[in-house]
Predict the 3D structure of the following.
Amino acid sequence: MIDYPKLKSLFLLNPGITYLNFGSFGACPRPIFSDYQQWQLLLESEPCQFIAVNGVAYLKASRQALASFINCDADDVVYVTNPTYAINIVAKSLQLNEGDEILSTNIEYGALDRTWNYYCRKSKAKYVRQQIELPAVSKEAIIEQFWKGYSDKTKAIFISQITSSTALRLPVKEICEMAKERGLLTIVDGAHVPGHIPLDLSELNADIYTGACHKWMMTAKGCSFLYVKNEIQHLFDPVIISWGYESAAPSDSPFLDYHQMQGTRDFSAFLTVPKAIEFIKENNWEDVAVRCREMARANYVRFCELLGSSPLCPLNDDFLGQMCSVPIRTEQPEKLQRYLFENYRIEVPVMRQGTDVYLRYSVQAFNTQNDLDKLYEALQEIISKKDFIVV
């Protein structure tokens, strides 16, 4: 039996705030945060030994724990601060020629749309944001819609496993398999995946994958990873050329040397991964996740009816995890988000995706039905008194 009040007490979140935004920024439970502070203390007690002597071994142990958790070789993953950094490594190094195309969807993370637009424009390539029709009706429909964007100029695909603004799980495994048949490079943004839904990189078989550990895995902030298949690692230059290039003490992996050794930086956050995995296992997180998914879905239709909208997908594991995005009609999403926080102390994102706007709530171990009721009642009151929302 899981003691949810006890689990809630382990989080450091301000008790005066209703926190429904784990999807943007996860929160460290006390044991993981304590582990983070111990690594930082060790760094400050002997900076030279930590960074220049022992750091490689510390990072290796952490990568081995992560690799076991996501089922890949530890030498095929390198830590980065966030998935946007990881995709910048990929996009900057990808040899795009004039006319080449990167096939993606129209519901990707805004920062990465910008990344691909930037590098495609520099090389006169094209970033294809293929339309995915919402609400989604089936995985097969999404797959069919996605491949309508394919042409003989397509060089690679880039797709989220769980999207940011719409919170939808996309059929990435099936799409990657079909991309392989076409000889395409497969690049997957899994920012919301580790610790949220099961991740098996060996089974997924993407060429490149990035995930955040500081969201649903609950590590310290600034901890993410980039996975690249061994046979193509030589294609990707580091964003920063530093001591790992022409290293005086090279390892067996130039990929790790180039991307891992970047001079003076505090990589303590990367080292909290083993403690986070331990915490997840000790606290039966698979069962916790089931409860959270059920709570998220049980409230989805209710919020849609309040806001005069409809769910974006069928309410099942094929499409949803612990987040739900509710379509909302407002011309002032940023103002509404701040109003919810400043007047009701509710932390929940209200996000634009093109011309659409979504209110996305996340459910984590510390959340209760009361938290979702507070959001519902706040929205009811705002609808009756303000002009932020059109129903």
User: Anything to note?
Assistant: The longest strand covers residues 154-160. The first helix runs from residue 4 to 9. The mean pLDDT is 96.
